[in-house]
From TrEMBL:
<feature type="transmembrane region" description="Helical">
    <location>
        <begin position="125"/>
        <end position="144"/>
    </location>
</feature>
<feature type="region of interest" description="Disordered">
    <location>
        <begin position="268"/>
        <end position="294"/>
    </location>
</feature>
<feature type="transmembrane region" description="Helical">
    <location>
        <begin position="183"/>
        <end position="204"/>
    </location>
</feature>
<feature type="transmembrane region" description="Helical">
    <location>
        <begin position="151"/>
        <end position="171"/>
    </location>
</feature>
<feature type="transmembrane region" description="Helical">
    <location>
        <begin position="216"/>
        <end position="236"/>
    </location>
</feature>
<keyword id="KW-0732">Signal</keyword>
<feature type="transmembrane region" description="Helical">
    <location>
        <begin position="242"/>
        <end position="265"/>
    </location>
</feature>
<keyword id="KW-0472">Membrane</keyword>
<feature type="transmembrane region" description="Helical">
    <location>
        <begin position="93"/>
        <end position="113"/>
    </location>
</feature>
<feature type="transmembrane region" description="Helical">
    <location>
        <begin position="43"/>
        <end position="63"/>
    </location>
</feature>
<feature type="signal peptide">
    <location>
        <begin position="1"/>
        <end position="19"/>
    </location>
</feature>
<protein>
    <recommendedName>
        <fullName>Magnesium transporter NIPA</fullName>
    </recommendedName>
</protein>
<keyword id="KW-0812">Transmembrane</keyword>
<keyword id="KW-1133">Transmembrane helix</keyword>
Length: 294
């Protein structure tokens, strides 16, 4: 089952990389859903994203969050290659992608060595995980609203990744405890999934409007697994027996991956010339010259 889950997660990562490049190419400096729905390129990207999400969801039913979720980081080098096709990627961009992959791989290796404990009940998981995700996501969204350029791009993508990490952890929690959870709790989980998916999707589109797809994918595939793995470790009992040293190693691996995102955001060739945001576009409008009295 684990091997099949890993295969599905890898194919899902390929779908996500293709979706990112297609959707980024269809979005200008602002996100208008009605306009996007009329663009075949964006719809094709949305179809790939849905396919990737479906494969990822099945993988989460078959294997723990800490094993499946980080596989999505494979989308980073794929997105770099697709977004820079016919161009040689700069060395620092390659280094950033490598750091993302290495950092998340270390998270997987450490989490996989843990001994599973008994998970928290679904009701408690729902309350704690949604509260944590809302706090982190809102903080990043506020930062995105007050910034432009690469900072806005990474902040939007990271906020969306927090929402998607919550979705993955919730799917795993429901699949493990669906037989024992009451109907009210399951309905609450379904509502949380719907809200998180909608919020995450909107935030990611804002990221595509603010920066290159490789940067958005890097932020997604680093923050998403860290969020999901953290919830899996803290509430689903997937990191039992790690101890303080293991937790410190996990945090260090996360820092390595975050450094990779920073490198990509700073040195990707498209980041410097991409329209940063609607706010920046307004600031570049020419001002009307005042008349000078004679």
């Amino acid at each position: 089952m684990t091997a099949l889950a890993l295969l599905l997660a890898v194919v899902g990562a390929v779908c996500f990389a293709g979706a990112a490049v297609l959707q980024h190419g269809a979005i200008t400096s602002r996100v208008d859903l009605r306009e996007l729905l009329a663009r075949p390129r964006w719809l094709a990207g949305a179809g790939l994203a849905v396919a990737g999400a479906g494969l990822h969801a099945v993988a989460l039913v078959l294997a723990p969050v800490s094993v499946v979720q980080p596989i999505g980081v494979l989308a980073v080098p794929l997105a770099v290659g697709l977004s820079l096709r016919n161009r040689r990627p700069p060395g620092r961009v390659v280094a950033g992608a490598a750091l993302c992959v290495a950092g998340v791989a270390l998270v997987v290796r450490t989490a996989a060595a843990a001994t599973p404990d008994a998970p928290a009940d679904l009701g408690r998981f729902l309350l704690v995980s949604c509260t944590a995700a809302a706090a982190a996501g809102l903080g990043l969204a506020v930062l995105a609203a007050r910034t432009t350029g690469r900072v806005r791009c990474v902040s939007c993508a990271a906020a969306g990744a927090v929402a998607f990490g919550l979705v993955s952890a919730l799917l795993r929690a429901v699949s493990v405890q669906i037989a024992t959870a009451d109907v009210g709790t399951l309905l609450g989980a379904a509502a949380a999934l719907a809200v998180a998916l909608a919020a995450g999707g909107w935030l990611v589109q804002q990221g595509f409007a603010s920066g290159p797809p490789a940067v958005v994918v890097a932020a997604l595939t680093v923050v998403d697994p860290l969020m999901a793995t953290g919830l899996g470790a803290g509430l689903l009992g997937e990191a039992g027996g790690l101890g303080p040293a293991g937790v410190a190693f996990l945090l260090g691996a996360g820092a390595v991956a975050a450094a990779g995102v920073a490198l990509l955001a700073r040195h990707h060739p498209d980041a410097a010339r991409h329209p940063s945001s609607r706010h920046q576009n307004r600031s570049h409008q020419p001002s009307t010259p005042r008349e000078v009295p004679t």
